[in-house]
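Appendix C reproduces, verbatim, an entry submitted by the partner laboratory led by Prof. M.T., so that reviewers can inspect both the input and the predicted structure.
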Amino acid sequence: MYRIEKIFHFSAAHQLTHLAAHSPEHKCARLHGHSYRVRVVLESDELDADGFVLDYGLLEPVERYIDSELDHRNLNEVLGMGTYTSAEAISRALYDRFKPELPLLASVAVSESPDTWAEYRP
């Protein structure tokens, strides 16, 4: 199995307001921001005619989407996921968004801090 990864960056705000029902003082229930990293992983049993899993340049639509739709936005408003904008939920939303145009997409992971990652892999 061949595997490639590319990491993208964006900064955005979100608010996990549903947490306030469990703990009104939960820090993530307040509007706050992160410097996100998104890791896109593609896998293939074989290389293409150019010797690639996929030319990294063909991941440009992912970068364009992140830059135009997510960067410096409120993720609760732009992702259509209501209050469920955890890193886990964002990784699934991005996977679902790009799987149709990237058939070799194996997983998407999202980091919202230097020490944490959440990954969606079907």
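Residues 45 and 80 are 35 Å apart (CA to CA). Additional entries are available on request from the coordinating office.
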